[in-house]
Design goal:
This protein is about 30% helix and about 25% strand. By secondary structure, the protein is α/β, with parallel strands linked by helices. It has two domains: about 5-190 and about 305-390, Zn peptidases (Aminopeptidase, 3-Layer(aba) Sandwich); about 195-305, Alpha-Beta Plaits (2-Layer Sandwich). α9 (about 310-320) crosses α11. Pfam families: M20_dimer (PF07687), Peptidase_M20 (PF01546).
Length: about 400
């Protein structure tokens, strides 16, 4: 029996209880970046039960890749991340985290479960001739953190060649500020370049009662901080997206001792490459105020994820698949997402899936939760995208 696209919404809703069960399991047993061993094993076990996929384990760490081929045709990839965050959960849910200090506070448990639900229905359709081609399901570790090399899970999996034969790649993200039945989507840059800076202001410390015998790096840093914050308002075109924020300042160990060093750390966010380079250049310029005051500095820039750039053609497919839902066309904000490494290699796009509850708890909040009914929306959109991209037969 051939499945029609009109049946996908109903079928996605039919498997919702099973998908919720998976989501609650992963929620109870979260694992941090590069530690997703049990999560990976459970995913592979569930995929194996569908008896339709070629399954690769331990790809780029604990990543899992499941491949389904139904004949000659395009190769399409769907990606879900699977790591959790170092947060103590405060939801009070019956299925709260059983790992103290670790929580799925960004919806990755839902991402996994949506992709598994998609996998289940794709497996059921494998012999229906509804689509011809190959679907790769990518369960990616370590989206939230990088290793000592500065690499996240997306880079690790790309180095293993997971997208080498792929023509398009899609992903979704849970969106607690949108209600069920809504998606947020945007063409072009939609999440930020994410870079960090580390500044060491160097002077000569000494007795707090004799500041004239020192070169006080704390005093120098007050001018440096003003210069850094002025970059946001006076160096970047107001019509462009870019900002610098200081997150850490460390200096001294005693209240009567002027320290020799001050450490200043912060983040640099932007959408465009040109603004990214401008902000880095301006930080270097701002730091030179220290030398005019008799000190010196060391500056280190750690370049993180590039901006997430969504392909307009892929976004159109997503919008077509989400017909009947409310579609909001807005960038996703100044957060970052390592799926950007994948869209930098292949045409791709991410959409944000509305899942808000009555009392909104934002991403990375210890009380974060979702409307689980939205899981079926994610499955339905994913499936319709696959069938459109793999050229479903006329009229089906």
């Amino acid at each position: 029996m051939t499945t029609k696209l009109s049946d996908l919404v109903e079928r996605s809703a039919d498997i919702l209880p099973e998908v919720i069960k998976w989501r609650r399991h992963f929620h109870q047993f979260p694992e941090l970046s590069f530690q997703e061993k049990a999560t990976s094993e459970t995913i592979a076990q569930i995929l194996g039960s569908f008896e339709a996929y070629t399954i690769e384990k331990n790809v780029g760490g604990y990543g899992v890749v499941a491949t389904l081929t139904t004949g000659e045709g395009p190769v399409i990839a769907l990606r879900a991340d699977m790591d959790a965050l170092p947060i103590y959960e405060q939801t009070g849910l019956s299925y709260s985290s059983k790992h103290p200090g670790v929580m799925h506070a960004c919806g990755h448990d839902a991402h996994i479960s949506i992709l598994l639900g998609t996998a289940k229905l794709l497996a059921e359709d494998a012999n229906t001739e509804l689509f011809k081609g190959t679907v790769k399901l990518i369960f990616q570790p370590a989206e939230e953190d990088c290793d000592v090399l500065g690499e996240t899970g997306a880079l690790k999996m790309l180095q293993c060649g997971v997208l080498d034969d792929v023509e398009a790649v899609l992903a979704l993200h849970m969106c607690p500020w949108r209600k069920k039945g809504e998606i947020q989507i945007h063409d072009g840059p939609s999440m930020a370049n994410n870079d960090d800076f580390y500044l060491i202001v160097k002077g000569n410390g000494g007795h707090g009662g004799y500041p004239h015998h020192t070169k006080d790096p704390v005093w120098m840093s007050t001018y440096l901080l003003q210069a850094l914050y002025s970059i946001n308002g006076r160096k970047v075109n107001p019509l462009e997206v870019g900002t610098i924020s200081v997150g850490q300042i460390h200096a001294g160990e005693a209240n009567n001792v002027i320290p020799g060093l001050v450490e200043i750390q912060g983040t640099i966010r932007s959408y465009k490459k040109e603004v990214r380079e401008l902000l880095i250049k301006e930080i270097e310029g701002a730091a030179r105020v220290v030398t005019a005051l008799g000190g010196d500095f060391d500056l280190t820039i750690h370049r993180g994820e590039p901006a997430l750039v969504n392909d307009p053609a892929i976004n159109k497919v997503i919008c077509d698949a989400a017909a009947g839902m409310k579609i909001v066309n807005e960038p996703f904000g100044m957060g970052s997402e390592d799926f950007s490494h994948m869209t930098a290699r292949k045409p791709g796009a991410m959409f944000f899936l509305g899942c808000g509850i009555e009392v909104e708890r934002g991403l990375h909040h210890p009380g974060f939760d979702i409307n689980e009914e939205a899981l079926s929306d994610g499955i339905g959109v994913f499936l319709k995208c696959v069938y459109q991209l793999l050229h479903q037969r006329e009229g089906e």
